[in-house]
Amino acid sequence: MDRDVAIRVRAAIEATLREQGSYPTFAEGLVDADTRFRTAIHELLADDDPLSAEFNALFPPPKPRTLPGGAPSRDRLDGAGVTKRARMHLAGMSGWLQGLIDATDNGRSN
Fold first, then answer.
1. What residue ranges do the domains of the chain occupy?
2. Which candidate in 68, 79, 94, 104 could, as Cys together with 23 as Cys, close a disulfide (CB 3.0–4.6 Å)?
């Protein structure tokens, strides 16, 4: 794993989490960010199957939400919930990356 890339991705996640916006529009941006950061983290972990498996288990891709009867829901119907879930997911990914960064730093010291 490239520690410098991990630091930059984590910093970008943290900057995204600090951004403020209205719930209906912010939800869409956070879900998009979740997808982009998942892709960046997968690229970072490309050669590490155990870490990729751990990441996938902890941070599965968001499932499309549906209304009763199978119709797709609209984010605007549940903007606050979508926003909170995306923020929690991004915060978890940031913490997970920090753990990798710390472990890599500890490995350098030994």
1. 3-63+73-109
2. 79
Output the six-digit token pair for 23. Answer: 């719930």
Per residue in 72-107, pLDDT (tens digit) is 555 444 556 777 888 899 999 999 999 999 998 776
Q: Is this model's pTM higher than 0.85 or not?
A: no
The residue written with tokens 């990914």 in the block is 93
Count CB neighbours of 108 within 10 A. 8
- CB-based contacts of 3: which residues, under 8 Å, 6+ apart? 101, 104, 105
CA distance 90 to 85: 9
Residue listed under structure tokens 């288990």? 57
Round to whole Å and give the CA distance between 97 and 55. Answer: 10
